[in-house]
Amino acid sequence: MTYLLQPDLFGGVLGVLGLMVGSFLNVVIYRLPKMMEAEWRAQCAETNGGASEEGVAAGETFNLITPRSRCPHCGHPISALENVPVLSYLCLRGRCRACRAPISPRYPLVELAAAFLGMAAAWRFGPGAQAAAAAALLWALLALAMIDFDTQLLPDVITLPLLWCGLLANLFGQFVPLSQAVIGAMAGYLSLWLVYWLFKLMTGREGMGHGDFKLLAALGAWLGWIMLPVVVLMASLVGAIAGIGLILFARHGRHVPIPFGPYLAAAGMVALFYGKEINRLYLG
């Protein structure tokens, strides 16, 4: 198996694996928020004494595996040949085979992004466990960014395991010493937690969701506390620019919340690749 550790071959393996992971991430991005909503409805119905609500009644099993993927327009089940990453989209010319309804180009774009991130991890860290761990982090951040962009949710089922996986990776010193990872997890959560409460006390409104605390804690567990200022500054700067652009050019209401998770995720990706260089740049 040593031939797999050749840099070019290892990068290609992570790229192909990224295509397959990207296909699964499309399922996660679409279904996980719906699964969370169904769970919340069921909990509300239970709290109300078992009264049924619309969408709570038992129906077909709905999770990340069941039912099979299908066209949202006509219900046509997607076969294995129609589910090959990127290639199926190109062969079908971006349309459902049954009803010819357009398929969102975001599906192949997510698959290509996952492949690119996998190859980038192999290029940056070289063949081995460190690159594989970095690819897993990047794929999780991609899923979180897309889910938060769509729904303004950062699911605990991703953020919390991501935090523990960061501590586990650094238990073996993959990115930073374990002490820096533990402090990073604590500092990441507490820093945004304090910002949240200060903003709420000053304005009476919530400035961000609790998922942002957990995501920054996870990034601190992977990258260490030293990278947190870089992550927060980059995310805040890009988020502020994007927010101003939405208000000025897209008529986005000033009081309509803008998800912060995608900017945190993007900043975490940049810090993973270039955080040390950025730190050296501004610390001299």
Indicate the topology:
Blueprint: H1 7-47, H2 87-91, H3 106-125, H4 129-151, H5 156-171, H6 178-203, H7 210-223, H8 228-249, H9 261-283
Helix pairs in contact: 1-3, 1-4, 3-4, 4-5, 4-9, 5-6, 5-7, 6-7, 7-9, 8-9
Explain what this protein looks like in three dimensions.
With 284 residues, the protein is mostly helical. 67% of the residues lie in helices and 0% in strands. The chain has helices spanning 7-47, 87-91, 106-125, 129-151, 156-171, 178-203, 210-223, 228-249, 261-283.
Tags for this entry?
284 residues, mainly alpha, 9 helices, globular
What would you say about this model in short?
The protein has helices spanning 7-47, 87-91, 106-125, 129-151, 156-171, 178-203, 210-223, 228-249, 261-283. By secondary structure, the protein is mainly alpha-helical. Helix 1 packs across helix 4 (129-151) and helix 3 (106-125) runs antiparallel to helix 4.
Calculate Rg over CA atoms: 21 Å
The backbone outline, from C-alpha atoms, is globular
- Biggest sheet overview: none
SSE string: HHHHHHHHH
Write down how many β-strands occur, each being a DSSP E stretch of 2 or more residues: 0
Strand content of the residues, in percent? under 5%
Helix content: 55-70%
Amino- and carboxy-terminal Cα gap: 43 Å
Count the DSSP helices: 9
Q: What's the mean pLDDT score? A: 89
